[in-house]
Input
Amino acid sequence: MDAIIEKWNDFFIRKGIDKTLREKYVDYIKVLVKNNVPIIFDFNHLRLLMGRSDLYFASVINSPENHYRSFKLKKRSGGFREILAPYPALLEMQYWIYGNILKKIPISSYCHGFACKKSIITNARIHLNQKELLKLDLKDFFPSIKINRIIYVFKSLGYTNQVAFYLASLCSYEGALPQGAPTSPYLSNIIAKQLDKRLIGLSQRYNLRYTRYADDLTFSGDSIPTKLLEYINEIVNSEGFTINLDKTRLYKKGGKRIVTGISVIGNELKLPKDYKRNLRQELHFIIKYGYESHIKKKKIRKVNYLDILLGKVNFWLSIEPSNKFALNARSQLLEIHKKYNL
Output
């Protein structure tokens, strides 16, 4: 740290910067070095670090909406989700922000979405073999996180108001987090850290388990009090989010229990029966009639169809690694893959 500050101090002296201003710069640098993030002084410094022209960089800062393409993906629950995909140049800049700044900021250990060594599997495993289960969904999670909260993330690291605004603008679309930018998931985890902390405290008070996977909140334990939802709602609202009441589910008896797409009934994770039944049927037709006959009969035009099936089977095995049907199916699909050089 001292060596870095000394180098910058020598640079300021060579540039003829007076002592008072030099001391302000050094104090600024100390905070950023302590937080292990890049030293950024202003607009020009940031654009040079990112290798962008003055004209392009100003365009992205002032009109980020012009640097995205929009498309829709069908939701499993019905309807569509708008995805805002940044164009390559902006995408590269966002990866720079993520790699050099965001991933150095700690998030809650109870957060399982877009977190190192965490997944839908680790999220679901926490809730195995629990008598009662409460599932909630945060409404419009990314769009509800506005640019002022994003600016605060960068300011909290020590950046000036202007630099924090530039960085936040590069991560925003129409003044909020865009669903599709690589910076959005981790920024949402950073911003939701206080929410997680308060919900952890609430769950511990009632001896419950708590996890969050992106916008999915899950609580489980021996007994979930009726008042809990009211307390959760108060905390969520005060943290700037909203619960989607239409997707709230409380399970007090046995039966189907799915957490982030995985069944948590009993003491072993399993794939939902519907998922396995549909996949079994598809694989049965391929084995019975042959791969070519199947895709012709079903009029399947996806060039990566076999890779999609392999992905589904591998997902099955990641949850149920010793399932004989899935192991056999993977072997057969790999043989077909090899035969057709797909």
